[in-house]
Specification:
194 residues, alpha+beta, Hypothetical Protein Pfu-838710-001, eight-stranded antiparallel barrel, two-stranded antiparallel sheet, 4 helices, 22% helix
Length: 194
């Protein structure tokens, strides 16, 4: 049975991920660029401003706002050191109180504030986050470069997290063996998956 084709930027079934953070991945990034199959030109370089919502009580859900959408994915399992994540939801602003009640605040795993409106603008939602003792908004700017190596989606990113610069490198796929081969080809097998 053929493997499902992964497409950059599209939601798929749960993917396994390798991702690491550091100051310099230039050697691995150079190898990644040379080994990559062609990717669409619009994905060669992308920039985004995102807000990650960090919760004091949650370590299983990744919650962020990108391109005006609340985006949540949840941790499924770890296999051979690779984490599997499943997309849960994307919702645009204004966001309904029902979505906040049923999806967003349960993902944060915190007490829900009183919701007295039918829907909430981005600004009203961020005011709730800022006022919540267990939540923290973290501003992230990403400059991302996309590649495809061994049928895995790969990326090198230069990131500003509340103004602090860090680099990231990743490979993700529904197929664990493809990620392992990519890590070996990029000489990243001894690098910590974070």
């Amino acid at each position: 049975m053929p493997k499902p084709e992964l497409k950059i930027g599209e939601v798929s079934k749960p993917r396994f991920e390798f991702r690491s953070f550091g100051q310099d991945f230039s050697v691995a990034a150079s190898r990644m660029a040379r080994l990559s199959m062609p990717v669409p030109e619009k994905l060669w370089e992308r920039q985004s401003d995102e807000i990650y919502i960090m919760s004091r009580t949650n370590d299983v859900n990744n919650t962020k706002i990108r391109d005006g959408k609340m985006d949540i994915k949840t941790y499924v399992q770890t296999v051979d050191g690779l984490e599997q994540w499943n997309p849960l939801m994307k919702a645009e602003f204004p966001i309904s109180a029902k979505t906040l009640r049923e999806d967003v605040f349960p993902a944060f795993q915190v007490l829900m504030p009183d919701l007295d409106q039918d829907e909430y603008s981005y600004e009203a939602f961020m005011a709730m986050i800022d006022a919540h003792a267990d939540l923290q908004a973290v501003r992230v700017h990403k400059q991302r470069f996309a590649y495809t190596v061994n049928d895995t989606l790969c990326e090198v990113a230069h990131i500003l997290i509340n103004g602090a610069r860090v680099s990231s490198i990743n490979s993700e796929s529904t197929e664990i063996d493809d990620i392992k081969k990519t890590l070996a080809d990029l000489h990243l097998t001894d690098v910590e998956n974070m």
